[in-house]
Prior knowledge:
Layout: H1 3-13, E1 16-20, E2 23-31, E3 37-45, E4 48-52, H2 57-63, H3 71-84, E5 87-88, E6 95-96, E7 100-101, H4 109-118, H5 127-146, E8 151-156, E9 165-171, E10 177-183, H6 186-201, E11 207-213, H7 223-230, E12 235-238, H8 243-254
Parallel strand pairs: 10-11, 11-12
Antiparallel strand pairs: 1-2, 2-3, 3-4, 4-7, 5-6, 8-9, 9-10
Helix pairs in contact: 3-4, 6-7
Amino acid sequence: MNLQKEICAAFCDGLVVREVPVGYAISTPVTWFSGDTLSFFARVEGARARLEDSGSLLFDLEGQGVDFSSENRMEILSSLMDEHGVTLSEEDGLFCTEWVAKGDIAKLVLPFIAFLTRVQDLLFLNREVVRSTFREDLISALEDTFSENRVSLSEALIPNLPHYTVDVVVRAPSGKIAAIFPATNDVTVLRAVLFSMEVQKHNISDIVPFLIYENLDRGAITQQSREIAVNSDLTPAVWSGGRGEVMEKVRRYVQ
């Protein structure tokens, strides 16, 4: 037996195809992030057929924390779909291939499996990419809410303390300033706390320091840093709790 046949045998031994009302249910030897085998369907309608997921993929990913309202993540997903010839049906939330002649459906199986495997990358983006995505989404929302010319980055707001830079600065029409720190790690949280202490120390009333978390899951930020932040004068907000609510909170504090 040559290597090609050995590989084919190893793969096909774990491949199960059975007839179901919509066409065929296909179970592969590939493992999904949940530990279950990767499965999908071949929907057959007359002489045509297409491949589609079970309908739970989108919900499974969202349940694991993938935020599809994020422009960056949607761009990654769209790129994967384009690369593998897959579309997302708005009608039923299914990832599916194009319709082809029933006899040609087998040719679409490997690209579709590759897509289903690679879409899991959305779960395993390294922390720096995730942090960058959160920060970019936050900045974009602030620019949409307050206008781009009122938002600036990495700015020192206290003249005699040039090393205390603020990650995102929003100058409201009222004259008040939102000094925003996206809470991506312990260092950022502690920088925000120190800045808020300086604002209080210098009795600066027109600057409102904010610490905005992407979510409250324990990850890059330790419990100790969270406790220090809670006991400071920082105004907290949580991005995953509602972007509109976060923008409204910033607006309310600086109006």
